[in-house]
Amino acid sequence: MDDLETRELRYFVAVAEELHFGRAAERLGIAQPPLSRAITQLERRLGVRLLDRDRRGAALTDAGRVLLREARTALDAVSAAVRRTRRAGDPERPLVLVTKAGASHELLRALLDALADPVEVLLCEVGEQAHRLRDGQADVALMHRPFDDLAGFDTADLHTESQVAIVPAAHPLAARESVTLAEVSAVPDLPIARWPRLDGTYPDGPGPEVRTQSQLAQLVALGRTLLVIPASSRAWQWPEHVAVPVVDAPEVTTLLAWPPGSPVASLVRSAAKLSF
Amino acid sequence: MDDLETRELRYFVAVAEELHFGRAAERLGIAQPPLSRAITQLERRLGVRLLDRDRRGAALTDAGRVLLREARTALDAVSAAVRRTRRAGDPERPLVLVTKAGASHELLRALLDALADPVEVLLCEVGEQAHRLRDGQADVALMHRPFDDLAGFDTADLHTESQVAIVPAAHPLAARESVTLAEVSAVPDLPIARWPRLDGTYPDGPGPEVRTQSQLAQLVALGRTLLVIPASSRAWQWPEHVAVPVVDAPEVTTLLAWPPGSPVASLVRSAAKLSF
DNA sequence: GAGCCTAATACCCGGTGGGTATCAGAGCTT
DNA sequence: AAGCTCTGATACCCACCGGGTATTAGGCTC
């Protein structure tokens, strides 16, 4: 009566994301009628209307939005169970550490040295670490406060530092000893790039839209945007750019995060202590 | 190939908990042969041996222990999805707050007043709040640091206080201005009670074993054990007992906890600010 | 009103989850 | 040592249900 199967959750997520039964069915590799029936049955079992069907598709109800969020985390948890169990059965399983491209090499190197066991490093795009951790693709993540979403993880701080602005050497700001956030936000010819939100849409603003680190690097190199980043991120500093301290930007803490209850906790904590 | 159904997880959890196919099958309401087959199939699909079958039952492998832990959290997440979706579809859904019996009445009252919306209060035993939160039976929990397991939740502190020891008025310690943890631990005629661990076993020690608050209350009332608790817990202080400050006991923080990403976050945060 | 695009309904089929009956092997008991 | 007992595994069958195709039912556009 009240235990759903993951299949039903997958089906619902597909429909909720596509908002279209036909496309969702195609994505799932099944025909449209069984999918319609499955969703109807799901609604009957939950006793709740999830979608408002309409002549040109479907729209989520409030309850549907709740289920979409909950179903995603539940499916992640199931995936995590599969991945972690498989890895636990592998005799020479490496620890998987996920980090975004562009994190400090020195710190990463020191960390890998501190961990005696073999470690596999997985690179992902900005903001993706949490998801990799949640669905079991990684055991531990290198993340940054206050940027990354740390909700639901245990953490150990590694390093705290201030931020600098990366500007073309020829720009007026490049001569400054230091700048403020208000100043860098207001530079009209170097609007700050906009990252997508969790739902894939972009906030309004004058800056260019970017999805990946490499897109951003391209824009910075072209002198089309400026960038506020932790001081240690030397990878961004080409000869034709300079780094100017931003006095009132929040401190950035590089830290390790892992799912609560994971057996990596003790290992990682001691490594974090060792390396700093 | 790599997506399990919750049914398979439920079956495995039952076997892993009973360590006996027959009893597990009975608990699940199915016959033993299909259960054996399901577990075998699960092992084949994961490519990992989960149980060492034996003449007198079964024992978990390392991978099996991993799957047991992961499967429980995944099943909790699925239950949470069902509960929260049902509640989201209910037009006059109350917020469900879970607290252990014996928490401060004044604080709880102030909190309920601060929350404009109707709130349903759910009482549970010590240490059970986290589970109620994880499987969606509650939206927010009143918990205590450093006692409760806060892993995986967002929190807002409400109140911090020191601890006192509750001892019979006739006892020598009752005359003291203050005591230390070392002193109260060493009182031979009032050994501190032992609570079960997460797996249900008890740590060694001279004190009586308790499972519930009321059992403990009984023992305290009988003068068979002493108790170190936050100073505000007046409910424990009968006329024939006195409270003696414990100078080196850790401060106890009463706080609200909720699952990350929950829409109650903003509501609860503002209420927490209002009430203190 | 014709044509379309949507989701829902009708109906059939095959796979598989669950049932009973039975087997197989490792301790006990005597 | 033979047999009993308790375990999980195997064999086999059935019925349900998840998935398929064909079709219907609305509502929009032109």
TrEMBL record, chains A, B:
This is DNA-binding transcriptional regulator, LysR family. GO terms for cellular component: protein-DNA complex. GO terms for molecular function: DNA binding; DNA-binding transcription factor activity. Residues 4-61 form the HTH lysR-type domain. Belongs to the LysR transcriptional regulatory family. It comes from the Bacteria. Keywords: DNA-binding, Transcription, Transcription regulation. The keyword Transcription regulation applies. Pfam families: HTH_1, LysR_substrate.
